[in-house]
Amino acid sequence: MGPATLGDLADKSLINWKAWALRDSEGSWVSYEVTLNIPVVSGGTVELPLCGRVRDVCPRRASSKELPAGWAIGRGAAAENIFAKGLPVDAVVTADCNRKTLLMRYIVPWLVEHKISTRGTRSALIDHPFPEVRQVLYTHVTGTDLPQLAAFPAAWRAHIGATYLDADLQWGFAACPDDTTLVQQIVATLSSVGRGLEIASIARHAEAPAKAIRAFVAPAHRYGVSFDRPIYLTYADAEKTQIEIIRCPHDCPSGRCDVVALLPEVAASGFGVICSSCWRTPNIADPKWAKIVFPSSYGTPVTRVAEAGPLRIAPQTIFSPAVTPMAILPPRPPATDGH
How many CB atoms lie within 10 A of CB 193? Predict the structure, then answer.
């Protein structure tokens, strides 16, 4: 039975529709009553009353008599969809509740109520590409148990809560606030070559200043103007003319930190890369980082949209298209006498 036929049958069989908005302690709903008109073999029909309710995923504005309680319930329902269920913001937007309204009236106030105190932190959570991060945060601030999160390492889940509930966290206004295409391409190039490369050569191929390449090794401190960028690469020689991928300092001798991830919970380590063997960041200054194992979903690279804009208008963090390694030859070994 095709959709059109099924629709015609429903139109004929379901009559006397009634629907109305309802709010209770569990959230916002649309309740309904309808009569099912069933034909019988002996002739005539039998009318069967039906009723029920469905979740209102984007609650309408409460009446003046319901404020502020109605808005509080609406915020809870919207937060449940985006955080507990892990739905992207645009999946919750409806014809009568656009993205800006959803964020500014429901989601941002809910985050503020739950001690997510800075704009950068709220932006990162709303814009985060991995639903499990939003779900873990939801369990931390509401005490709700989401059994599916037991699949993720306990130390990582605790770290997510500590990161996003840190009142001193400084971050940009997106989950991934920078375009990471260049550093991803450099990492892919170094991986394909298998050794360090000259900074000058990379700069020529990338048509970027050498200073920008060096910033991936030694980022400048912003001193309160903005958040500090993390480290992605390391120098390959004492003269600091070459760069290479950071070798994993943990107990995986062949590990290489070649997964680029500019996200708050990763950058909190001081690094923007994760080892693709053990899924840890290369921080050994603090022993806690040896215990924090990131899920493999972080292996999906993300970047900032090309035309950055307000988060209330559109998502700012997207999954990156595949990058192509640069066609760079490794430096020649030094010449020896007689050759």
Answer: 17
**166 within 8 A of 116, measured Cβ to Cβ:** no
pLDDT value for 59: 54
d(CA 162, CA 156): 10
Structure tokens at 154: 């306990």
Average pLDDT in the 169-195 region?
94
Which tokens in the block code for residue 190? 């170094």
Residue pair 268/283 in contact (Cβ under 8 Å)? The answer is: no
Digit-coded pLDDT (tens) for 200-230 = 999 999 999 999 999 999 998 765 556 789 9
Q: pTM for the full model?
A: 0.77
Average pLDDT over residues 243-258: 93
pLDDT reported for residue 44:
76
DSSP letters spanning 110-127 = HHHHTT--SHHHHHHHHH
Kindly report, residue by residue over 25-66, the tens digit of the pLDDT. Answer: 566 777 778 888 888 777 777 888 888 888 776 555 444 444
Distance from the Cα of residue 115 to its chain's centroid: 19
- Strands (DSSP E) contained in 5-131 are 14-24, 27-39, 45-55
Longest CA–CA separation in the chain, Å: 108
Query: What's the length of the chain?
Result: 339
Q: Which two tokens stand for residue 141?
A: 């601030």
Could you give the CA distance from residue 303 to residue 126 in angstroms, rounded to a whole number?
Answer: 15
The phi and psi torsions of 163 (rounded to 5 degrees) equal: -65, -50
Contact (Cβ atoms closer than 8 angstroms) between residue 293 and residue 155: yes
Q: What's at 215, amino acid-wise?
A: A
Token representation of residue 326:
């640069």
Closest CA to 291 of 155, 159, 133, 150: 155
Q: How far apart are CA 303 and CA 212, in angstroms?
A: 17
Cβ count near 207 (within 10 Å): 7
Contact 77, 59 (CB under 8 A): yes
CA–CA separation, 15 vs 152, rounded Å? 48
